[in-house]
Task: structure prediction
Amino acid sequence: MAHALPALPYAPGALAPIISEETISFHYGKHHQAYVTNLNGLLEGTGLEGLSLDELLASQDKWPEAKKAGIYNNAAQVWNHTFYWESLVPGGSKPSAELAAAIDAAFGSFEEFKKKFIAECVGNFGSGWTWLVKKADGTLAIEKTGNAVIASTGKPLLTCDVWEHAYYVDYRNARPKYAESLFDIYDWARASQRFAA
Result:
């Protein structure tokens, strides 16, 4: 069973003007699709083709040594991008009372969290991801990862893609403006479900 590009949870133009339909066409339609295509090519003949993405990522000890880096980079980028699209919703939403309280406890207030998260997005050098995670003890933290790396210090609740292709069409080199604008379309309702699960 070949991996397929997961459907967007909204229409391609639904996040405009924060993320334009043109950006979606390149970022989702070309970049995300390329990771899926590359992953399928790398898995051919390995016996791993029938695994779901989560099963594949959990079975790294079975990956052929010569293909490990390529499989990880492409599988992780399929996972990260799917998670990113699912972290956004047209018009945004609000966190649950429980998640809001956890944000206040960890960062002092939602506004302080927002400032810190944007600063971490801007300060995440090069290409990568900035995550809000729920740690094993139930507290929240911000994690930065480089390139394709998936958050590992806790359960991801939402993410910001800081690869340049995520924002260059709409924001050019203004990563701070992009990171701030995403707060208008973050799906805090979904993040709240992830927090509660």
About this structure: The first helix runs from residue 21 to 43. The chain has two domains: 21-86, 97-196.
